[in-house]
TrEMBL record:
CDD domains: SET_SMYD. It comes from the Eukaryota. The lineage of its organism: Eukaryota, Fungi, Dikarya, Ascomycota, Saccharomycotina. This is SET domain-containing protein. Pfam families: SET. Residues 198-305 form the SET domain. One of its GO terms (cellular component) is nucleus. It comes from Candida viswanathii. Transmembrane segments: none annotated.
C-alpha cells in the first residue's frame, strides 16, 4: 500500500498546447495576450480565458466506464486510508482504512473545488469569474429549468466543466471516476432529466460564443472543440455529476448546496455506513468522520440516500440513481423482519414476524403472522394490532396521495376511512414497482395537510402509546419528522399544553426516530439535535415563569408535581451542555447562565438528580429510554444500544 500523497487540491491554470497556435495569436487568444489583460480589464480577461479554454483546449476526454483501463491518479492514499481496485475499471474501486480508527476520527478533509453553494461567497474565484462571463446568456436559458434540484445540478455541471478546463489536477482526478454513461444513455427516464440540463448548458455556451467575434469566426471554421460530436462532452459531464455528486450540509443537517469532489466520490455506499460527512459553517472545509470504529482494511462507506426506509425503497433509489444493488448487512436482513418496517411485541419490544413491506404492497389486508410473542409470551392483542396496522395504511396512503386529498372536506373519521379504502384500491391497481416509485416521490414532497394536523397528532399519540410499531419504522418516521418540522416553524409556546405536546413530539423525533434510524448521526448530529430539545425546554421554562400566565401553578403541578420547574430546568441545562457546535457556543452560554440563576433564585429542589429528571422527561414522551446517573441508552433500529454519557458537570 502506497503511503505518499495527501488529499489537498491545488489550483493550476492550464497551459494550452493547442495545435492552433497561429489562430490563437491572430485572435488574441494566446496565453500571453490574455494574461496581459488581467491587470487592466479583468472581466475581458475571464471572458477570453473561457473562450480560449472552451474553443481550443485539446483535452475533452472524459472517462468512459466501458473501455477505460487508464492508470489511476491517486491523491487519496495516505497513512490512514488507501484506494483499492486501482487496477480495475472505474466503478470497481473504493477506499479502505489503512489502520484501526476509533469512532469520531477524521478520515478525510476536503476543500471542494467544484461545488454549487447556495451562498455565492463560498465559490472559488475563477468559478465566479467564469460564471459572471456567462451570466447574461445563462439567465436567458436557465428559465426553462425548475428552480431547485434541476437548476442546482445544472449549475454544478457547469462548474465541474470550469474546473475540468481550468485545473489540471482536477482533470486528472475526474479521469478516475465512474460515470455509468452507457446505463444513462439507455435509461429513458434519466434522459428526460439529462436533456433539459444539457440544453441549457449547450445553448448558454453557444449564445456566449456567438456573441463574441472570435467565437463566431472559429465556430464557422469548425475549429471549435465544444460543438464537435454534437456537444457529447456535455452529456459526459452531466453523467459524471449524476453519479458522483453529493449534497453539502452543515452539522445541523441544513443543506448548503451540491458538490463533486473526485476524492470523496471514490467512497462507496452502505445502508449501514461507518462514516458521515459535513461542511464547516465558517469555512468550506468538508470533513469525513467515522461514526463507527473502523478496522484495518475495512471499507470506508457513507450513505448515498436518506436512511430509515424499508429495503425495497432503498434498493429502488440506489438502482435508479446509481445503477447497483446494495449487498450491505442491512439489505441482507430477513425480509419479514425489516428493521424499518417491523412490528414489535408491545410488552417487551422484541421484533415479531410480520408481512413484509413487499407483501403489504401486494395484499394490504394480510393478517399478522404471529399471535404470541415468542420471547415474553405476551398475547398480541387482536384489537390493538389491527387498529395500528390501519393507521400505518392510512399514513402510507396519505404519503401516496397527499396532494390530491389535501382539500377533501370529509370529517376526520371519514377521511381516515376513505384513505384506507383508497390504499387497498391502489394496491389492486398498481404493480409493486409503480407503488414504490409513487411512495418515493411522495416521501420527498410530503407536507402535512394543515387541516389534518390534529388528526395526525392524535394518531401518532395512539401509535406511541400502543407501542406496536417502533417510531423509526416507515411511514411513522416520515409523519413524525414532518409534524415536528411543522411545529418547529411556529415561534413561541402559546400555552403549557402546547409546549408539552411539542416537547413530546420533539423527544419522540430525536430519540425515537432520528437517533435510532441513522447511525451516521450518532457522533455529529446528536449535539445539534440536542440543541433543539434544549431550546424548546427553555421556551417552556420561560412560559412557566412568565407572571402573566395566571393558571401556571395549577397547570404545572399536573406534570411532575412540585418538581416540574426544577425538572425542566435541569434537563434544559443538560441538553444545552451537550451542544458542542462552535457557532452556537455564545448564545448557549447566555442561556446556561440564565437557567442556573433561575434555579438558585427560585430555590428549586437541589436534591433532584439528572438521571431522575431525564427519566421523567422520557416517560412524559412515552419513550421509556433507560437512564442511569451516568448514561442514557437509546436502542438503535438494528437492536444495539447507543450510549450517551452523562457528565456530572453538565448538571445544575
Ligand atoms: C460515487 S461512485 C463510488 C466509487 C466507485 N466504486 C468507483 O469505482 O469510482 C458510485 C458508484 O460506485 C458503485 N457503488 C457504490 N457503492 C456500491 C455498493 N455498495 N455496491 C456496489 N456498487 C457500489 C456504483 O456503481 C455507483 O454508481
Amino acid at each position: 500500500m502506497a503511503t505518499t500523497t495527501t488529499t489537498t487540491t491545488t489550483t493550476t491554470t492550464t497551459t494550452t498546447t493547442s495545435p492552433h497556435q497561429d489562430l490563437l495569436i491572430s485572435y488574441n487568444l494566446s496565453s500571453s495576450s490574455i494574461e496581459s489583460l488581467k491587470p487592466t480589464d479583468e472581466s475581458e480577461y475571464w471572458k477570453r480565458k473561457l473562450i480560449q479554454l472552451l474553443l481550443l483546449e485539446p483535452s475533452y476526454v472524459f472517462p468512459n466506464d466501458d473501455h477505460s483501463m487508464r492508470g489511476f491518479y491517486d491523491t487519496v492514499t495516505n497513512d490512514k486510508i488507501y484506494v483499492h481496485g486501482k487496477e480495475q475499471r472505474p466503478g470497481q474501486r473504493g477506499i479502505r482504512s489503512g489502520k484501526y480508527a476509533l469512532a469520531g476520527s477524521l478520515i478525510m478533509k476536503i476543500n471542494p473545488l467544484a461545488a454549487y453553494y447556495y451562498d455565492r461567497a463560498r465559490q472559488p474565484d475563477f468559478v465566479v469569474k467564469f460564471e459572471d462571463a456567462l451570466q447574461p446568456y445563462l439567465n436567458n436559458n436557465v428559465k426553462s429549468l425548475l428552480v431547485g434540484g434541476d437548476r442546482g445540478v445544472m449549475y454544478l455541471a457547469l462548474r465541474v466543466l470550469f474546473c475540468y478546463l481550468y485545473d489540471a489536477e482536477f482533470r486528472m482526478k475526474v479521469g478516475n471516476l465512474c460515470t455509468h454513461q452507457r446505463e444513462i444513455r439507455l435509461d429513458v427516464e434519466k434522459r428526460h432529466l439529462v436533456e433539459p440540463i444539457k440544453n441549457v448548458i449547450v445553448n448558454t455556451l453557444r449564445d456566449f460564443l456567438g456573441a463574441h467575434d472570435i467565437g463566431v469566426s472559429l465556430y464557422k471554421k469548425n475549429l471549435i472543440k465544444v460543438c464537435k460530436k454534437n456537444w457529447k462532452f456535455v452529456d459526459d459531464v452531466i453523467a459524471i455529476v449524476f453519479i458522483n455528486y453529493f449534497n453539502l450540509f452543515n452539522a445541523k443537517k441544513q443543506g448548503l448546496g451540491y458538490c463533486l469532489d473526485p476524492d470523496f466520490a471514490l467512497i462507496n455506499h452502505s445502508c449501514l455506513p461507518n462514516c458521515t460527512q459535513f461542511t464547516s459553517t465558517s469555512t468550506n472545509e468538508f470533513q469525513v468522520i467515522n461514526t463507527l470504529p473502523i478496522f484495518e482494511d475495512e471499507e470506508i462507506t457513507v450513505t448515498y440516500i436518506p436512511l430509515g426506509f424499508p429495503k425495497e425503497i432503498r434498493s429502488y433509489q440506489l438502482s435508479l440513481q446509481f445503477y447497483f444493488h446494495c449487498q450491505c448487512k442491512l439489505c441482507k436482513f430477513d425480509d419479514n423482519n425489516d428493521p424499518f418496517f417491523s412490528i414489535q411485541c408491545n410488552k417487551c419490544g422484541t421484533r415479531i414476524k410480520s408481512p413484509s413491506f413487499k407483501l403489504i404492497l401486494t395484499s394490504p389486508n394480510l393478517a399478522m403472522r404471529q399471535h404470541v410473542c415468542t420471547k415474553c409470551l405476551n398475547n398480541l392483542n387482536q384489537v390493538v394490532y389491527p387498529k395500528n396496522i390501519k393507521i400505518r395504511n392510512f399514513f402510507m396512503s396519505l404519503i401516496l396521495f397527499f396532494k390530491s386529498v389535501t382539500g377533501l372536506s370529509f370529517n376526520d373519521q371519514d377521511y381516515f376511512k376513505f384513505l384506507n379504502k383508497e390504499f387497498v384500491k391502489y394496491i389492486e391497481k398498481f404493480t409493486l414497482v409503480e407503488l414504490i416509485k409513487m411512495l418515493v416521490n411522495g416521501i420527498y414532497q410530503f407536507e402535512i395537510p394543515k387541516m389534518r394536523r390534529n388528526l395526525l397528532k392524535n394518531l401518532v399519540e395512539i401509535v406511541v402509546s400502543d407501542k406496536v410499531f417502533p417510531l423509526h419504522t416507515f411511514p411513522f418516521n416520515v409523519i413524525i419528522r414532518e409534524l415536528d418540522n411543522m411545529e418547529s416553524q411556529r415561534e413561541s409556546v402559546i400555552s403549557l399544553q402546547d409546549g408539552i405536546s411539542r416537547l413530546q413530539l420533539k423527544l419522540q423525533r430525536v430519540f425515537g426516530v432520528d437517533i435510532p434510524s441513522d447511525l451516521t448521526s450518532m457522533l455529529t448530529f446528536d449535539n445539534c439535535l440536542f440543541l433543539d430539545v434544549g431550546e424548546l425546554l427553555y421556551q417552556i421554562v420561560k412560559f412557566i415563569i412568565n407572571p402573566d400566565n395566571e393558571n401556571r401553578s395549577r397547570e404545572i403541578s399536573t406534570i411532575f408535581g412540585a418538581d416540574t420547574l426544577a425538572t425542566f430546568c435541569q434537563c434544559c441545562f443538560f441538553f444545552f451542555k451537550q451542544v458542542r457546535l462552535s457557532s452556537e457556543v455564545d448564545s448557549i452560554e447566555d442561556r446556561l447562565v440564565e437557567v442556573m440563576e433561575l434555579y438558585d433564585t427560585l430555590g428549586l429542589n437541589d436534591k433532584l438528580t439528572i438521571g431522575r429528571c431525564l427519566s421523567d422527561l422520557f416517560d412524559l414522551a412515552e419513550l421509556y429510554i433507560r437512564v442511569t446517573e451516568s448514561q442514557i441508552a437509546v436502542k438503535s433500529a438494528i437492536g444495539f444500544l447507543i450510549y450517551f454519557p452523562i457528565d456530572k458537570d453538565d448538571c445544575l
